[in-house]
Amino acid sequence: MIAALQALQGRAQHEPHHAHDAHKAGVSSDIKAKTETAQFMWEVLDIDLHPELESQYGDKVPVLLAHKDGIKVELCHHFMDEKKLLTYLRQEAGS
Description:
Blueprint: H1 2-14, H2 19-24, H3 29-36, H4 51-57, E1 63-68, E2 71-77, H5 82-94
Antiparallel strand pairs: 1-2
């Protein structure tokens, strides 16, 4: 999951950020929209150091959670669901 998150951030950082640049680079506007919403920060927590997290997510590790305004949203576990993450990021960007 860490590698998938790093790859997604890497693609977002290297894609053109303006429609004109995306067109010149032959990048579809759909890809541009996906990467522009892929601006996010993440951190790795060792759940073994947090008993409350271990009891809640122990069998789902690795798990990807989004946090906003004190609310946790489970986006995926075991494997990265890039589509679900991008959908969440687009929704949050539109809020």
